[in-house]
Amino acid sequence: MHELGIMESALDAVRHQAVKHGASRVSRIVLRIGTLAGVDQAALRFAYEALAPTSIAAGAVLEIETVPARARCAACSTEFGVERGFIFQCPQCGEYSGDIRAGQELGIARLEFPDL
Length: 116
Prior knowledge:
There is one protein chain. By secondary structure, this protein is an alpha+beta fold. The protein has a domain at 2-68 and 102-112: hypothetical protein PF0899 fold (2-Layer Sandwich), CATH 3.30.2320. The chain is 26% helix and 30% strand. It is built from two helices and eight strands, in the order αβαβββββββ. It has helices at residues 2-20, 41-51, and strands spanning 28-34, 61-67, 70-72, 79-81, 88-89, 96-97, 99-102, 106-112. Helix 1 (2-20) crosses helix 2.
């Protein structure tokens, strides 16, 4: 379950940002995760529930923003939604493309500190 390692890294980054901004705790963590990032959101939430109580994020709300996958066709410049994989067929012209424009994101989108 690599989601545990992802959450450990995220909480370490949260702690670093809290220290940087002089905050003693965090009230909300918003993560942005693309549908092609290979992250099981349920497992990530489980990891958060296991790790947060002993961190600066104890009691903080975790929100996950899902970023849908999109690709771009080099032949006709159509941008289109995709569901999975890394080579996609353009719905407009039928050409294949691996030009992923969105959906691989994995990071902290926003933090809220109650004492700032």
